[in-house]
């Protein structure tokens, strides 16, 4: 049993060390949501009228509305970034080192997933701290209550990254992930606009948004930040996490042939 | 066909490596879609043996290495590492296997000691033993003084030595090296080849894949892999006869084309 714990510590520790050595990555991960929050939202607040919808009890500014969506955005980009580094690891060979460990492969993958999630969460809190410094604050206890939601959302999006990395054979194909996964997931969600607003323009798009698991990550985070639990979102996120994790384990099954390429 | 028959005979004289703790492969086949990469490959390497697996590019060496390290699993054939079946007891089999991959697998931002520590944890070595084992492993390769340097600061030869030290950290029974001298200068190449020969003399079972004939000694076991099949198996000096190994190898793989 101590061996399992040792593996976890080593893999998570390595993720942290890599993170520390890539300061540009940390800054990029912070700048992205801050640009949205401080520039996009400022410009957009006049254009978009928000009514009072749960979990909010008063009128809120647009900046306040998009904070949960931007937290989820940090998780999304990080999950994809970590799968990008998995593809890179595979080309470089350090993935081989990891997968030839005698520990079960699903455990190794889970540790990796857990490590990248921990780093995502660190970045979310850094983002929330800067947002607070600019006067966009949330209920104090909400900062703690949101933690389980961030863990779950991070695991879900990390698992999605794992799935993608197991199907992408080369680094070059990764640009497609940006276009076909990150942007649609982000824009077809409640991160930037509430779903009822979307329904005004297109009921079909609203339905797609409602099916998008990323929407439910955003809503889970939004409600937890205001000390409420959105059971519907929670169920969706748990279900997606389980499904994506199973798919990732299947994707990395050696009999299926992750390494099925020459070289 | 005659040569394949001979392969069988020769490999069986190698003893029952599956029983004695070496490496044993039986009827291993693997296909990439339609393309056959390995065709019913069988081989045995006994403990204390340095076995060179010689093959031109595209012979199937990389596929064999992926199968031996369980990065791939073949639908047909059996692999035993130190008596453990890789299919039914993968954890025990992988625990008995040390690997030096062709691709560099070091984390260049970490120190030598951190790299080895990471590996030790991946293999579940008891935490208290790790520093001592790392010192011993680095000491054997004269790398102890470099333990706290970043991997990035090491030259190619030293990085390889460090990967070798790492592969021995969990005291494997079988050591697999996949073209370990690629990109090294002549001196580093000679040093690492000599060191691994010493390890075999001390009782380790070594499988060394290469396409460079000068890394193979006359007393080494030799397997020639060509187009997914074992063309020859035996002792290098006996197989090559009077011809230099490089000429003999070229004639074999050229003529068989």
Automatic annotation (TrEMBL), chain A:
- Chief localisation class: membrane
Q: Where is the ABC transmembrane type-2 domain?
A: 24-255
Q: How does it sit in the membrane?
A: Multi-pass membrane protein
Where is the chain membrane-spanning? 26-53, 65-88, 109-136, 142-164, 176-196, 233-252
Where found in the cell? Cell inner membrane; Membrane
Which protein family is named in the record? Belongs to the ABC-2 integral membrane protein family.
Kindly provide the name given to this protein in its UniProt entry: Transport permease protein
Species annotation: Roseobacter sinensis
């Amino acid at each position: 049993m101590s061996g399992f714990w040792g593996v976890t510590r080593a893999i998570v520790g390595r993720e942290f060390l890599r993170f520390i050595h890539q300061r540009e990555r940390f800054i990029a991960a912070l700048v992205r949501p801050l640009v949205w929050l401080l520039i996009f939202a400022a410009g957009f607040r006049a254009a978009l009228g928000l009514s009072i919808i749960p979990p909010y009890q008063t009128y809120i500014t647009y900046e306040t509305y998009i904070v949960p969506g931007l937290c989820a955005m940090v998780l999304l980009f990080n999950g994809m970034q970590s799968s990008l580094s998995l593809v890179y690891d595979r080309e470089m060979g350090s993935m081989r080192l990891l997968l030839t460990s005698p520990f079960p492969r699903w455990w190794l993958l889970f540790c990796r997933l857990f490590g990248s999630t921990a780093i995502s969460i660190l970045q979310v809190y850094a983002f929330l701290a800067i947002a607070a410094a600019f006067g966009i604050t949330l209920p104090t206890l909400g900062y703690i209550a949101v933690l389980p939601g961030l863990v779950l959302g991070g695991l879900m999006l990390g698992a999605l990254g794992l799935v993608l990395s197991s199907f992408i054979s080369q680094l070059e194909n990764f640009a497609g992930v940006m276009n076909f996964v990150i942007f649609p997931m982000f824009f077809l969600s409640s991160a930037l606009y509430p779903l009822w607003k979307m329904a005004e323009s297109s009921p079909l798009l609203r339905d797609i948004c409602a099916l998008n698991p990323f929407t439910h990550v955003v809503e889970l985070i939004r409600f937890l930040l205001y000390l409420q639990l959105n059971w519907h979102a929670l169920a969706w996120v748990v279900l997606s996490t389980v499904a994506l994790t199973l798919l990732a384990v299947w994707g990395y099954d050696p009999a299926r042939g992750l390494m099925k390429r020459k070289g | 066909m005659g040569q394949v028959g001979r392969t069988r005979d020769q490999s069986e004289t190698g003893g029952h490596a599956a029983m004695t703790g070496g490496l044993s492969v039986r009827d291993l086949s693997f296909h990439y879609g339609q393309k056959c990469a390995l065709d019913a490959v069988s081989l045995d390497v006994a403990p204390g043996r340095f076995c060179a697996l010689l093959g031109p590019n595209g012979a199937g060496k990389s596929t064999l290495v992926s199968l031996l390290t369980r990065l791939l699993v073949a639908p047909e054939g059996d692999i035993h590492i130190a008596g453990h079946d890789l299919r039914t007891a993968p954890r025990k089999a992988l625990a008995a296997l040390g690997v030096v991959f062709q691709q560099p697998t070091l984390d260049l931002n970490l120190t030598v000691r951190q790299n080895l520590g990471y590996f030790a944890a991946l293999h579940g070595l008891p935490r208290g033993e790790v520093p001592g084992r790392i010192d011993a492993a680095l000491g054997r390769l004269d790398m102890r003084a470099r333990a706290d340097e970043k991997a990035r600061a090491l030259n190619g030869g030293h990085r390889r030595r460090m990967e070798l030290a790492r592969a021995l950290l969990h005291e494997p029974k079988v050591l697999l090296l996949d073209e370990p001298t690629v990109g090294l200068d002549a001196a580093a190449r000679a040093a690492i080849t000599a060191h691994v020969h010493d390890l075999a003399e001390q009782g380790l079972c070594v499988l060394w894949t290469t396409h460079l004939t000068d890394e193979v000694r006359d007393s080494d076991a030799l397997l020639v892999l060509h187009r997914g099949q074992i063309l020859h198996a035996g002792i290098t000096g006996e197989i090559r006869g009077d011809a230099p190994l490089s000429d003999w190898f070229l004639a074999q793989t050229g003529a068989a084309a």
